[in-house]
Amino acid sequence: MSKIIKFTQFSIRDLIVASAPTVLAIVGVCLLAYWLVDPAPPRTVRLGTGQENSAYEDFGKKYAAALARHGVKVTLVPSAGSSENLRNLKEGKVDIAFVQSGSTNEEAAEREGLSSLGSLFVEPLWLFLREEKGKPPITQLTQLRGKKINYGPKGAGSPRLFRQILELNGVEKGEVERFSLANTPATVELLEGRIDGLVFTSAPEAPLIQMLLQTPGIRLFDFNQAEAYSRKLPFLTHVVLPQGIVDLGRNLPAEDYNLIAPTATLVAREDLHSALVDLFVQAAAGIHGGAGWFQQQGQFPSAKYSEIPVDPEAAKFYKSGPPFLQRYMTFWLANFFDRMWVLVVALGALILPLSKVIPPLYVWRIRSRVYRWYGQLRAVEQKVEEAPEATRMQVYEEQLQRLNEIEELVNQVSIPLSFADGLYGLRSHIQFVRKRIQFLMGEATPAALDSVPV
């Protein structure tokens, strides 16, 4: 009979098994928190831009490129302009869009669940007119009566703004023949002489603005009362197009021009993920933060110049800069840790009590390897005690054989040295039962039985 007893210093396997319920509970809490506490930001977002060859379209492409570097796909949704973008935001067709200041008000924005990510740039109201030979240039808007002017397509920001400007000058609806062409075909009509003028609201970077500023026979209207307009309509600012800014060598324009300008803002739906808000505002700082024709270095983007309430995450950026973690980590890694701070607190409260469960489970698992054999010993004793007189010797022999089998199996049990006392106790009890059976069979004396340790 083999007498080999297996001992180990420590049972890694038993520790893993004892720890498994706790580890699974912690992993389950982590996964639940990852998906439910604060969902991960989406990988795609829809940005409402503007017409073909517009500044909105051009800047939209820059935002798409900036967010693509962080693994976020920006789908550009073209539109007629600011008013259509605002409508698309309300209807959920886009997640974020360029909107011109003055297009809505604070109460309406809050009611529709919209917030501003900040002002990006000024987009002056450009009124380009054909020069008429032998006639002095138009210097007052009242001189537009009877003229053919393209206000811009329905859904753009310029028609609404230009109507307000004409009303301030006492020009009634119908006194100016209105056209509603998109910017590109309207420019063609102006150059062909089929209309007398056209209106844009756009940043000076727009290709059509650049072209018209350098086209002979096309003159930019000078809003010489720009300061008065900015007082009448608070969402407007007075800006100056400096002499020579277009081309210093050719001195274009040949004089300063006064212009009135709303600001372009990024407006988002309230359900836009806060992490995407951070990405867009950071992209805006890179795209619009430099000096330009009408702005100083660092003037934009800004929480100012918008009648729409600024998103709290955007306001935090303007006050403190990018989130701390995003200064040192990639966007997705920083976002993961930023979202998981709630989980860290929860784990702190969860790990301590659960860790107290592991040691008792470990001890129970080790000792159960010994204790379960006591059931076998008790079964042997019961069969010996209940053996019929006619077959008693046969039962005694069978149970002695069973004890030998139990002892052989017990000797194969692997157990840490710190629990060796339990194993040796079990082996002594097996020997005690064997001596008792042998005594009953007449193979041992009562003195031999008394010498067996209990």
TrEMBL record:
Query: Keywords on this record?
Result: Membrane, Transmembrane, Transmembrane helix
Recorded hits in Pfam families, A to Z, give:
NMT1_3
- Which residue ranges traverse the bilayer? 12-37, 340-364
Transmembrane helix among keywords? yes
In the UniProt record, does the keyword Zinc-finger occur?
no
Protein name (record):
C4-dicarboxylate ABC transporter substrate-binding protein
Record organism: Duganella radicis
Q: What is the lineage of its organism?
A: Bacteria, Pseudomonadati, Pseudomonadota, Betaproteobacteria, Burkholderiales
